[in-house]
Amino acid sequence: MQSELAALLDRCPDLPTPPGVALRVIALAQDPKADLNATADAIGLDPALAARILRIANSPLFASATRRPPETVSRALALLGLNAALTLALGFSLATTMRGGGQVAAAREQYWRRSVLAAMASRLLGEYAGLDRPEELMLAGLLQDIGALALMQVLPERYALLDPGPPGLAPLARERALFGGDHAGVGAWLAARWNLPAWLQDTIARHETGPFDDDAALACVGGSGLVADLWMQAGTPEQLRALAAELEHRTGLEGVQIAGLLQRLSASAPELATLFDVRLDDPGDVRALHGRVQELMVVRNLIEIRNGAVARRELEALKARTQDLTEQARRDPLTGAYNRLQLEEVLEREFQDALQHGRPLSIAFLDLDDFKRINDRHGHLVGDQVLQEFTRCLAGHLRQSDLLARYGGEEFLIVLGNCDAAAARNTLERILAEISRTPMALVDGAPLYITFSAGLASQGDGDRFASAQDLLKAADDALYGAKRDGRNQVAAPEG
């Protein structure tokens, strides 16, 4: 991005900018010491945003059959998690900046509608790819083109001259020639200005260009805008064919899968329109649209077969399958948490990194209290449901950089990088309080609640361990102490 454009952006008073409440939520979402009550208090300063959070937590997109409807912002956040709250706070507050006239008003509205559709499409693509943390994909999909909105705001006359070219294929070179920078770079600059996480800045910067082969999350975000364009039926049949082909290239989805994805996006559109306060016109005959996409893909596949594309697709499918199997080998099949193999690799790496850079490191052993009684009284199917819901709730309260692994049975282990003993204890006690009042299953119509015992050990703050295994043993010993002293508590090594 040229310095002239950077200076214009820096001086522009009307850039799309989250209000103070949303910026506060951004800061809290990245603070390991922050709790849900602090976030709820921040959101409560904006009554409209608080009402929107409650409505979303009770919407079909997020509601859970095993939970009672949340009635307070803090309980809504316990259901959604901080990353989802960040997405919703940004989406709601930025939507208010999309209003008003000007010579690019229509283009601005169109871009925002596309961004909302892309947010949901990114989440759905993540499900197809088997990725965790759908709210983070949703946030990346929502903000991937925020740079285009900034360019419209700061240089509207020049933007009106921009030839957008075919839909879905970003005019990055034409933007650079006209503005001295492109919307991907401007979007990454904005994300850095808002202090959004580094991974999100990088995703915004690369969502148009990739490479997508070795980054499934980037492929989901990079494909989500194409899905939105297909749903909106933007372009001629040949342009739609190009969109579908590029979507297949980025994500590996084929015609029938793309049609199914569009069907799911259509089902979500009314709810999205309400949640993000944006008009999403019905694309017409949805079945005809899906059939059209499938026909376009069939034509393209016939051409590719003639050009030897079958061998290429088989190779790509084998590569994707290999990646899937590699990821599956790292995951516990019941809960989706990482397994002990992945845990040992990450723990050793984090331990060495903490030693090298002098950063704190905390780990926690968690054991579900009286879990055998649940299996004996209600059966193993209920027990499995409890483990799955416990894992989901626990993951929702952790940072993206934290690792959650199932150690065995009802035992779990959390690796908290760059987190000292005091912050780790605060986090675990907050999670314990939330878990203890969150039903893990419904049995004969009645909620089933659980607690857990936790043993915490930390490297730093005067505690030094010779190896990662010694740190692990200290956490295990602390867990034994927590269970011995009555369970439902967090304990640290004695002495």
TrEMBL record:
One Pfam family named in its UniProt record: HDOD
Domain HDOD stretches: 15-210
Main EC class the enzyme belongs to: transferase
CDD domains: GGDEF
InterPro entries: Diguanylate_Cyclase, GGDEF_dom, HDOD, Nucleotide_cyclase, Rev_trsase/Diguanyl_cyclase
SUPFAM superfamilies, alphabetized: HD-domain/PDEase-like (SSF109604), Nucleotide cyclase (SSF55073)
Listed EC numbers: 2.7.7.65
Residue ranges of domain GGDEF in the record: 359-495
Name this protein carries in UniProt: diguanylate cyclase
